[in-house]
Amino acid sequence: MTAFTQGHSDPTVQPVPASVVQQVDAADTTLHNPKRAVVALGANLGNRLETLQGAIDALEDTPGVRVKAVSPVYETEPWGVEPGSQPAYFNAVVLLKTTLPPSSLLERAHAIEEAFYRVRDERWGARTLDVDIVAYADVVDDDPQLTLPHPRAHERAFVLAPWHDVEPHAQVPGRGTVAELLDLVTLDGVAARKDLELHLPE
Ligand SMILES: Nc1ncnc2c1ncn2[C@@H]1O[C@H](COP(=O)(O)OP(=O)(O)OP(=O)(O)O)[C@@H](O)[C@H]1O
Ligand SMILES: Nc1nc2c(c(=O)[nH]1)N=C(CO)CN2
């Protein structure tokens, strides 16, 4: 046996804090057990369709992320702002499988927004691209940095309608089924663009 493997007598070996062991274990579990995540995409500046497809391809290019389904495209009146004050949005929802933890998925979402020249000035301002994490597995968390499920998804027809198309029996954790929630919101100003299509990355 060498001096190194004598273990306990080696003064350079420090005990690993329990919190670090927990984090490593959690990361290891996620790595072997991909989670499902639901991501909403929106764009109301620039070439909206190209940008949404670019975002889908960028999600797929992310290590630890696989795009499993892409919804139809909806053209939607801007929600939460003065009518007529912004161009109409294109919205879509994608279903992912991911080994990334929620915080890393959000970082990646922000990086993709930036790659498409998203400018953050006013709340609910017009944007080239918005990438929101609508749900991550069954996680319910009120952290303002990353609230899960997304705090306004359950009242947004522009999220619920495309989500329902790709996952008709989905649940919004803590809120009910997407189908029930969709019945409670108006579909005025939310139109499927059947002439347009987003596709799964090749
Ligand atoms: N589920 C979530 N998905 C994305 N961002 C979230 C989420 N929960 C909290 N946030 C936080 O919200 C902040 C603002 O996000 P963003 O600029 O995309 O808001 P918005 O799209 O203008 O409005 P909304 O949040 O109503 O969709 C982000 O920096 C992020 O930290
Ligand atoms: N129709 C529509 N309205 C919005 C959207 C959006 O994606 N579509 N996103 C917003 C901020 O996330 C605010 N308002």
UniProtKB/TrEMBL annotation:
<keyword id="KW-0067">ATP-binding</keyword>
<dbReference type="GO" id="GO:0003848">
    <property type="term" value="F:2-amino-4-hydroxy-6-hydroxymethyldihydropteridine diphosphokinase activity"/>
</dbReference>
<dbReference type="GO" id="GO:0046654">
    <property type="term" value="P:tetrahydrofolate biosynthetic process"/>
</dbReference>
<dbReference type="GO" id="GO:0016301">
    <property type="term" value="F:kinase activity"/>
</dbReference>
<dbReference type="InterPro" id="IPR000550">
    <property type="entry name" value="Hppk"/>
</dbReference>
<dbReference type="InterPro" id="IPR035907">
    <property type="entry name" value="Hppk_sf"/>
</dbReference>
<dbReference type="GO" id="GO:0005524">
    <property type="term" value="F:ATP binding"/>
</dbReference>
<keyword id="KW-0289">Folate biosynthesis</keyword>
<dbReference type="GO" id="GO:0046656">
    <property type="term" value="P:folic acid biosynthetic process"/>
</dbReference>
<keyword id="KW-0418">Kinase</keyword>
<dbReference type="Pfam" id="PF01288">
    <property type="entry name" value="HPPK"/>
</dbReference>
<protein>
    <recommendedName>
        <fullName>2-amino-4-hydroxy-6-hydroxymethyldihydropteridine diphosphokinase</fullName>
        <ecNumber>2.7.6.3</ecNumber>
    </recommendedName>
</protein>
<keyword id="KW-0547">Nucleotide-binding</keyword>
<feature type="domain" description="7,8-dihydro-6-hydroxymethylpterin-pyrophosphokinase">
    <location>
        <begin position="123"/>
        <end position="134"/>
    </location>
</feature>
<comment type="pathway">
    <text>Cofactor biosynthesis; tetrahydrofolate biosynthesis; 2-amino-4-hydroxy-6-hydroxymethyl-7,8-dihydropteridine diphosphate from 7,8-dihydroneopterin triphosphate: step 4/4.</text>
</comment>
<keyword id="KW-0808">Transferase</keyword>
